[in-house]
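User: I'm putting together a small comparison set for a docking exercise, and I want a reference complex before I start. The sequence is below, and the ligand is NAP. Could you produce the 3D structure with the ligand included, as structure tokens?
Assistant: Of course. I'll restate your input first, then give the structure tokens for the complex.
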Amino acid sequence: MANQMDYRTLGRTGLKVSALAFGCGDVGGLMVRGAPADRERAIARAVELGINYLDTAPSYGSGESERNLGVVLRALRPQVIVGTKCRLPDTTDVPGALTRSVENSLKLLGLERLDLFHLHNPIGRVTGERRLGVGEVLDAVAPAARRLKEQGKIRFFGITALGETGALHRALASGAIDTAQVCFNMLNPTAAHEVPLGYPAQDFDRLLDLAREKEVGTICIRVLAAGALSGQVARHPVAIPAVAPIASGPDYATDVERAKAFEPLIKEGYAASLVEAGFRFALGTETMSTVLIGCSDLGHLEFAAAAAAKGPLPAPALDRLRAIWPRLAA
Ligand SMILES: NC(=O)c1ccc[n+]([C@@H]2O[C@H](COP(=O)([O-])OP(=O)(O)OC[C@H]3O[C@@H](n4cnc5c(N)ncnc54)[C@H](OP(=O)(O)O)[C@@H]3O)[C@@H](O)[C@H]2O)c1
């Protein structure tokens, strides 16, 4: 396929990012558990398709994703935007922990500077066992990230927009955040769409609108709800065997069952499959800068590129979705 990739501005970073981006996460797992030749082939093909942003994290495969991506980056030397993350274990010595994490990522990736650096912790109103308080994010993490920028170790600082909705809105409204990884898919469209009361997913309260207002670059995560939008429970052999949903149903099987509610889109000819509909739904959201894809094999990458080439879902398909969402809330 020729390079038909669409490029968009990643918020205030000014970077021109491809509409599809390549996730090196644990779920699909190609960059964690795939064979070395398959990993290199996938990145080479992604670049050939016009993808120019690769996302990884120290926690993906406990360092395997960054290590394996580093091997491919050294071999191919592609002109790409590379992003990684840091999950803070606690709030003692935030600058030290961030610096150590960045330096380790740079070493594994074989880079001198990270283009994008995201906080991986979910964010809450206050710091708790599983969340970092938004106060700490703005008063400790953001200033430490600013120093890392000044030192030339990172270009831009972002957050993972998971946790409590109010805290995420506060973080984006602060003006201290360059980019946000936002959970958005047909099962949880709330970052861009209103859903009825009782809808069975966390309400992100149109976070993407705020992101646009504050010029925060937006990166879609979980576009297929970790694969549940395929409507199949069975997992690829390279994929993580079990995965917990993010901001959607209570478990993966429930998400798979709920995904079947979107089958009218296929029966009525708006898309050829649920997966295609899932990609085109996210890609057609104009407040989203780029959509990360999670792959277990090269076929997943080719499929996503083919779906992107078909363009956004047409307006009547969105009307159909707006009629389906209330049924999930019932
Ligand atoms: N910041 C964060 O906390 C965070 C959280 C989540 C994700 N992310 C980023 O976002 C990226 C993508 O997210 P994700 O992998 O978690 O979820 P995802 O993209 O929603 O789902 C990926 C899964 O979808 C299935 N899939 C993909 N293409 C398919 C196709 N053509 N047909 C059928 N099934 C298909 C595969 O399942 P099988 O492998 O079972 O076939 C694949 O593992 C990650 O790699 C990571 O970079 C970031």
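The chain has one domain: 7-329. Residues 7-329 form a domain with the TIM Barrel fold (CATH 3.20.20.100).
User: Thanks, that's exactly what I needed.
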